[in-house]
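User: C-alpha cells for this one?
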Amino acid sequence: MFPTKRPVGLLSEHLRLGVCLLHAMPGAVGSLRTHRGDDHVVAHHRADATLTPCQLRSGLLEPVVPGVPHLLGVIDRVECTGGALDLGGGIYHRSHPAAGDERWFATILDADTVTSIVAACPSEIEHADVSVRISADVELGACAVCVSSEAHIGLRLDEVACWLHAECLVTELAVHVARH
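Assistant:
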C-alpha cells in the first residue's frame, strides 16, 4: 500500500471556502477553472455539469498518492456563479418563492466560534426574526453560514449578514495573527 495523505492542508483557503459553499447551498452552481484555463460547471441537476458539488468535494478530499494525478493538481479556482446572487465581499443572496430570503457566506472558523459570534450580535442590529444555520464541514475545515428570515426583510437581513460575516473575518484574522 502506498503512503497517502489527505490534502486538506494543501487546499488553498479560497478553494476550501468555495467548495464548502457550493456543497452546502441548495441550487448553487459553480465554475471550476483549471490551470490550463478550461472552465467546467459544478452543479446538481444540470446536463452541462462536469461534476456535482459532492463529487468535487469528495475528489478534493481523496488522499494524495505519490505518482497518481490528483484533482488538486488541476484546479486553479472554484467560484459560485449561479443559484444565488453575488452581493460582493463573499456574501450571496439566495431566494426561493416558497421560502424567505437567505444570505450565505463561508468561513474557516469552526461552528462553535461562529455560534459564539452570533450570540454576541449587538441589540442595535435588529435581528429578532433572523435565524442562522451553520453547516460545518470538518474535513474541509470550513463552515457555510446561512442567515435567513421567513419575513422578507431585505436590507435588515443584509445588515445582519454583513455584520456576522465581518465579525467572522476579523476573528479569522485574529486567529491567524495569534498563530504566527
